[in-house]
């Protein structure tokens, strides 16, 4: 039996993921070489002239990161923490592959998964810095919660970082 509702949810999620990955690549291109320039001792003023970022937003993001130390260290740490985004994107891909293989063809499990996905996205909106924990063998619902939470975290982080590039760049993307 085909579950058209689950098919539509899967297509929407896949399209959103493609958009996130494209936005992440855009951010990586805009910030390519900054960490190395900081490590080489390039002054902040020269960095600001060399890289066409929205520096006001960058400094706001580093302040929100609550890093202590010189501006160059704060910036380097913020850029380095962005690497977690890449790990989350890979985990999202793995969860999606698991969904396609193990869950999608079961109407009941697929419904539970997408209900969990919606719940996971909501969990991320509340102050929750840690990933939801799953003890034992995860259910379809728990896998959905995990995917929704990771998706929401990655979406927020990429949006924040992309807005540091240029406002017009961020406007090019449609977020799921």
Describe what this molecule looks like in 3D.
α4 crosses α8. It is built from nine helices and no strands. It has 176 residues and is mainly alpha-helical. It is elongated. The longest helix has 27 residues.
Which properties best describe this structure?
single chain, 176 residues, 9 helices, mainly alpha, elongated
Topology summary:
Elements lengths: L3 H27 L3 H6 L4 H7 L4 H10 L6 H11 L1 H21 L3 H19 L14 H26 L1 H4 L6
Helix pairs in contact: 1-6, 1-8, 4-5, 4-8, 6-8, 7-8
Query: How many E strands?
Result: 0
- Briefly note the structural class of the backbone: mainly alpha
- Give the mean pLDDT: 84
Unreliable segments (pLDDT under 50, ≥5 consecutive)? none
Tell me the strand percentage band: under 5%
User: SSE string, helix = H, strand = E?
Assistant: HHHHHHHHH
User: Globular, elongated, flat, extended or rod-shaped: what is the shape?
Assistant: elongated
Q: What is the radius of gyration computed over CA atoms, rounded to a whole number of angstroms?
A: 19 Å
Total DSSP helices = 9
First and last CA, distance: 27 Å
Largest sheet: none
Measured as a percent range, the helix fraction is: over 70%
Q: What oligomeric state is this?
A: single chain
